[in-house]
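User: Quick one: structure for sequence A, then sequence B.

Assistant: Sequence A:
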Amino acid sequence: MITVSSPHLDQKDKKLIRDYSHFVISKFVKESLLDKVQIKIEIVTANDLDHYADVDDLKMLEAWCQYLGVFKEKKHFRIVLNAKNISKVIDPLKKYKKILIGLGHELVHVKQYLNGEMFDYVSGGVKYKGSYFDHSYQNSQEAYYDAPWEIEAYGRELGLYKMFITKMKGAEKK
């Protein structure tokens, strides 16, 4: 189940975000796994957040994904996106371009967790596709961008958006 919450979007726009999320995640994850997942997507500004750490993260990052663990037999994820990336144009696919690209990136990380490709350690380290990476990848931009899970997410984000645009334009013609 995917939910979208934001004081900055109306129901139609939230549906677009949900539709995109379903489009992306269903490309990578078996349908049987999706029944065991809860993804909460929040599109917010710093003023909408209660925790100082989240406010700081939103100021530094455009988006992030958290794996929150298993509750009631479902894996829970939280994706936070910066509402300041909503543009002023009227066309919804262009208005939410930066949001959708960032969301695609974060959903690749959800895929990595769900398919058992990635595991976080309390120490800050990460196991990705069988290899362990200590927390030092968090200490520099170079190490962050060289992390293989980030290379995959950055490598897919724009293409996912373009595929969705093509799908939506094809649906409009029918």
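Sequence B:
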Amino acid sequence: MAAFIFDLDGTLVDSVYQHVLAWHTALRAVGFNLSVWKIHRRIGMSGGLLVRALARELGREMAPEIAEQLRRRHAEEYAKLLPQVEPLPGARELLRDLTSMKVKWAIATSGAIETAQPALNMLGIPDGIPIVTRDHVERAKPDPDLFLAAGKQLHVDAGQAMVVGDSVWDMLAARRANYLGIGVLSGGYGQQELESSGAYRVYADPEEMRNHLDEMGVRDD
């Protein structure tokens, strides 16, 4: 039976652009200005790598204390936008169906629990479902640590789970973990980008994925 490891932002909840705007506001607050589209291309990385990538885009050094201030400000700005965030179409139903069919699944997000918990609460996750956040691993995406940790909690071996994500960073990390990647377009990356990064199937959102579970070896008979 298949097992699934889900990314969170842009995969199960419609929060990518709120994160982008929060980073944009945070950057301006510490004296940097960067186009919104360039920030979007980095969403899905761990906070530390994202800050490093943004500094590279700006062509400027970022002192450790400024980087920490930026991460804190992002969390504050994202909290202000939380009322705009909601589950993606079919997300709750997909997770409910997998649970009822006794298919193993977990959530692995590069966000810290501080910013991830409100989104997790929206999904109505049953007790006992493994949740892995940035707080639990040494390195986040595109390193495979998050997905490997989730696979360990699911008690599945390498190659026996599928990672569902919306970004190229998800697909790259899935490949490094030796898991199949399933892409969703709901985070703003295109189908070709996801496929070239390793996705073997791409769906519009959780609802479309839910309607094609048989393509991933999940059957209710």
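The first helix runs from residue 16 to 29. The chain is about 45% helix and 10% strand.

User: Thanks, that's what I needed.
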